[in-house]
Amino acid sequence: MKAREARALGQRISTLLQTDPIGSAYELLAPVLAEPTSFAALRRIGSEIGHNPFERIDPFLMRIAEDKTEGGWPVISGILAAQLNQDLSSSLQRCRSFILEADIWYAADTLGEWVVGQAWVDHFKSTLDLIASWREDRNGWVRRAVGTSVHYWAKRSRGVEELTQQAKTLLSFLEPMFEEWEIEAVKGIGWGLKTLGKYYPDLGDWPEVI
Question: Strands (DSSP E) along the chain, which ranges?
């Protein structure tokens, strides 16, 4: 699916959601989720849908999550990322809820990168406060998403010198997680540290995990 086609489909679904919270809108999306579609295209579809307020799209989000398709999580990620500038706190709360609902690594990574990671890029200080508790979350997938979100931020930073202080802050933010024991969470945290170390190798002594 080309980018233009993905945006057009997202716009059609968005229009339908103004009168029908689920029904015909999901009928348009379901065939796309049932066939091989790039995550980038799925995210573009979600980005267009995300222009609607949460009151309108929450039932649709739940319907996507209910089927637990692999392609559904990029769509949800695109929707939530599109809402970050309007309602950061609610977007991150919903992100955590869907990580719990999915209960699988690829959803944790997709939501962690594209929602929380984008939140770091656009709303660094607020995100620092809003997801601090995720580091001690009882759910390992949520803890994993903290690491994948830092990976996304570091990848987007490209090592720009002006962002060095933010990189230092993120390294300190991850420090309480260095003794993580659950392997799936360790993988996400290690991923975040490895990418931070790649772009900001001079921050200090890096833990052996990278």
Answer: none
The pair of three-digit structure tokens given for residue 36, joined into one six-digit string: 């091989």
Domain that holds residue 19: 1-83
Q: How many domains does the chain have?
A: 2
Instruction: Give alpha helix (H) positions in 83-117.
Output: 88-102, 105-111
Residue 6 phi, psi dihedral angles, 5° rounding: -65, -45
Instruction: Give the CA diameter of the chain.
Output: 56
The residue out of 21, 51, 83 marking a domain boundary is 83
pTM above 0.90, yes or no: yes
Using only the alpha carbons of the chain, give its radius of gyration: 17
Q: pLDDT digits over 155-206, tens only?
A: 999 999 999 999 999 999 999 999 999 999 999 999 999 999 999 998 866 5
Query: Do 68 and 124 belong together in one domain?
Result: no
Residue written as tokens 């607020």?
126
Cα–Cα distance, 169 to 20 (Å, whole number): 44
What is the identity of the amino acid at 75?
V
**Same domain? 4 vs 61:** yes
Instruction: Identify whether residues 110 and 181 lie together within a single domain.
Output: yes
Cβ contacts of 12 within 8 Å, gap of 6 or more: 28
Q: 47 in a domain, yes or no?
A: yes
**Would you say the C-alpha torsion 82, 36, 139, 174 has a positive or negative sign?**
negative
3-state helix, strand, coil in the chain (%, to 5): 75, 0, 25
Residues comprising the chain, all counted: 210
